[in-house]
Specification:
The complex is a heterodimer of chains A (411) and B (263). Chain A is an alpha+beta fold and 411 residues long. Chain A has helices spanning 3-15, 18-24, 26-56, 86-95, 130-133, 146-150, 160-167, 210-217, 241-255, 271-314, 316-324, 329-366, 374-400, 404-409; strands spanning 60-65, 99-114, 117-126, 138-141, 155-158, 176-179, 182-190, 205-209, 230-235, 266-269. In chain A, β2 (99-114) and β3 (117-126) form a beta hairpin. The longest helix of chain A has 44 residues, at 271-314. Chain B has 263 residues and is α/β, with parallel strands linked by helices. Chain B has one domain: Rossmann fold, CATH 3.40.50. Chain B contains nine helices and ten strands. In chain B, the strands form two sheets. Chain B has a six-stranded mixed sheet with strand order 6-7-8-3-9-10, sandwiched between helices. In chain B, strands 2-1-4-5 form a four-stranded antiparallel sheet, with helices on one face. The chains are: A alpha+beta (411), B alpha/beta (263). Chains A and B meet through α11 and α14 of A and α3 and α4 of B. Adenosine-5'-diphosphate (ADP) binds next to β1, β2 and α2 of chain B.
């Protein structure tokens, strides 16, 4: 008896009880679908988080002013805090090990005008290291130079969204635009960055030199003469960020003369770690879903076992006949195993279809990429087939152990 | 009346004769007992039966219900093993054979026909007949051609795709006979093959058995009806697990013996 013969017999048997067969596989369908959803959505979400971590810039710490007590690490009255200043930048660069790039980001917003086109965007004063720190290269034109900073040059580098809004298809490099009604020359365009972890369009931005921003753009009255906003610090690969974080904290406590035991009025954060913590929540969910799918597969398997036992009973006479015409016990065994596995694989295919569909819907709603790898499909099918073998074994054993005479005599 | 029946009629005149010694015993039972235990009760379904059936013979087994006929058939069909005694089929003692060897013996040497036909539901005639070939070692390639040939032989060459529900009782039994013949068995066993058929159809089926026997197949049938038993050459009567009567009507036909040599 060939495998094809067994398959043909299995198919005939299953088809003659089509509705029952499909209902039986419900547990398998749910189990396999949840395997697919779990792995696809889980890895889609992970890819998305990794993308966001990468978009922050790698090996990076961020320093905010304000205590860690308030929302999001900053206390409510940010304006009253002692800001991070140029002196802090210089001190960190000099005294903390492993710093390869450091840049402030002083944010404001305001209208940017090209001819008749008007667009309100985020204005960010930055240092020349900004592109390096944030892993956000200037794609066309040039980056800021130290000279731009020293001279408070009226030059601007635009993000992709700002370029699209102001210039459509024109070449922006060299053009003069008005930023808060002062003329600025466009020297560069940033590479696209996409959404931030909070869903903000990071490409809707105009970068200007830190000094220019301080003296000119960002509401002069609120700005202390040497403040730098938040500070991004990039380290070389060999630096332990925990270590670096401690060094920065010690240094800033000294500089700010914070008494031992008093609370910091600044905050050093490893944003990548924070986001990784979010993926850990995700993996907890993943385990829950994994447990769900294992349980569904077990329940599904018991359903399969049940229906196979029913089938063996119903077909006792047929089994007797097969034995009488020369089937060996292992032929019968294999036939029922193939039948159980076929049943599970049919459920598996339906489950895959449902799972892929559901994963696509979830991913679409959450704006994640759908990651459905062939390995996941293979895993799901293997899980289904394995369930068939495990739970089909007992009924198949029972079928193959039947006494042919008694089987033939049964009704 | 056909030629087989004519031969039978003619042969009834002559006195019973022992099988020719030239024909070797295909089935040899010596001191076979089959005891069923049910709780503390034991049923002696076969009680020290000794018997030889020659190659090419046509045997009818008769006897009251419960006399052990089916038990004997099941043993000859290698579906079961005797409790004590020896039973050799085609020269091999079934007590010494493994379950796989018994399966292969059933597959290649023995063909079964049942009272209730035992066809698979929702399966066309051709596939019914192919069934034993699926379990053959080696498995032949020309399954359909062989099945076709056998269905033609039993007069159903035009009904190969009919389902059991689309066939009369007699036709279903013919499909079952074609299935029993598919592996060119030496022995055809039929336990009350006409029990579920009307008289006319029964006679047609018995004629078919006669023709198959004439081709050299050893045929053993169980029946209650003397008319049906009359188609056979040798009659065995069972009572309480013992053979109480063994009558033979004529020597094995020369034609059959001649065919044996060719086969
Ligand atoms: N599996 C079994 N278990 C117990 N007793 C059995 C079994 N098979 C047959 N018998 C008994 O053996 C005796 C012979 O049965 P059987 O060969 O079927 O008779 P029959 O001549 O009617 O075909 C009967 O008494 C029957 O009840
Ligand atoms: Mg009987």
């Amino acid at each position: 008896m060939t495998l094809f013969d067994s398959l043909a017999i299995a198919w005939t048997a299953l088809r003659s009880n089509l509705l029952r067969s499909i209902l039986t596989t419900l547990g398998i369908i749910i189990g396999v679908a949840s395997v697919i959803i779990l792995v696809s959505v889980g890895s889609g979400a992970r890819v998305e988080v990794e993308k966001q971590i990468a978009s922050l810039g790698s090996n990076m710490l961020v320093v905010f002013s304000g205590s860690s007590r308030g929302m999001g690490g900053r206390s409510a009255g940010a304006g009253t805090d002692l800001p991070i200043a140029e002196g802090d930048v210089a001190a960190i660069r000099d005294k903390v090990q492993g710093v390869i790039a450091i840049s402030g980001q002083l944010n404001g917003s305001g209208p940017v005008v090209n001819g008749n086109t008007n667009w309100t965007t985020t204005l960010s004063g930055v240092h020349p290291d900004f592109a390096t720190v944030r892993d956000w290269p200037v794609r066309a034109g040039r980056d800021f130079t130290p000279q731009d900073i020293r001279a408070s040059a009226k030059v601007v580098i635009l993000g992709q969204t700002a370029v699209k809004q102001l210039f459509q298809d024109e070449d922006p490099i060299g053009a003069t635009i008005r930023v808060k009604s002062a003329p600025f020359q466009v020297i560069g365009v940033l590479a696209p960055k996409g959404q931030s972890a909070m869903g903000r369009d990071q490409d809707d931005v105009a970068l200007i030199p830190m000094t220019t921003a301080r003296g000119y753009i960002v509401g002069k009255s609120q700005v202390q003469s040497d403040q730098v906003g938040q500070l991004y610090i990039k380290f070389d690969n060999s630096t332990d960020l925990k270590d670096a974080q401690e060094q920065i904290e010690t240094l800033l406590r000294q500089r700010r003369r914070i008494q031992p035991g008093a609370e910091d009025n600044f905050n050093v954060r490893n944003l990548a770690e924070t986001m990784k913590a979010r993926t850990e929540v995700l993996s907890t969910m993943t385990y829950l879903l994994a447990a769900t799918s294992v349980i569904s597969l077990i329940v599904g398997g018991i359903g399969i076992m049940n229906i196979m036992l029913v089938s063996v009973t119903e077909r006792t006479r047929e089994i007797g006949l097969r034995l009488a015409v020369g089937a060996r016990q292992r032929d019968i065994m294999r036939q029922f195993l193939v039948e159980a596995v076929t049943l599970c694989l049919i459920g598996g295919l339906i489950g895959i279809a449902l799972g892929v569909g559901a994963a696509a819907i979830v991913a679409n709603a959450a704006d994640w990429p759908v990651v459905i790898s062939p390995a996941v499909i293979a895993l799901a099918m293997a899980a289904a087939a394995g369930t068939g073998i495990v739970f089909g074994y007992f009924p198949a054993r029972r079928a193959s152990g039947l006494n042919p005479i008694e089987a033939l005599r049964s009704e | 009346m056909n030629s087989v029946a004519a031969i039978i009629e003619a042969s009834q005149v002559s006195a019973p004769v022992a099988p020719q010694s030239a024909a070797p015993a295909l089935i040899r039972a010596s001191g076979v007992s089959k005891i069923y235990r049910m709780g503390d009760q034991t049923v002696r379904a076969l009680d020290d039966v000794s018997l030889e059936i020659a190659k090419g013979d046509f045997v009818a087994i008769m006897g009251a219900s419960g006399s052990g006929k089916s038990t004997m058939m099941n043993l000859i069909g290698a579906l079961d093993r005797p409790t004590t005694g020896h039973l050799a089929i085609d020269g091999r003692d079934i007590a010494t054979m493994s379950s796989d060897e018994l399966a292969d013996l059933r597959n290649g040497t023995i063909g079964f026909v049942f009272q209730q036909f035992n066809l698979l539901p929702r399966t066309p005639a051709l596939n019914q007949v192919i069934l034993p070939l699926l379990y053959a070692h080696p498995r032949p390639d020309d399954l359909e051609a062989r099945a076709h040939h056998r269905l033609e032989q039993v007069g159903l060459g035009k009904r190969t795709d009919h389902l059991p529900s689309q066939l009369s009782g007699g036709q279903q039994q013919r499909v079952a006979i074609a299935r029993a013949l598919i592996n060119n068995p030496k022995i055809l066993l039929a336990d009350e093959p006409t029990g579920a058929l009307d008289t006319k159809t029964s006679e047609e089926i018995m004629k078919l058995f006669g023709e198959l026997n004439a081709e050299g197949i050893t045929v053993i049938i169980v029946t209650h009806e003397p008319d049906i038993a009359d188609f056979a050459r040798r009659k065995l009567v069972f009572r309480d697990g013992k053979i109480i009567d063994d009558t033979e009507r004529a020597p094995l036909k020369a034609a059959t013996a001649a065919k044996d040599r060719v086969l």
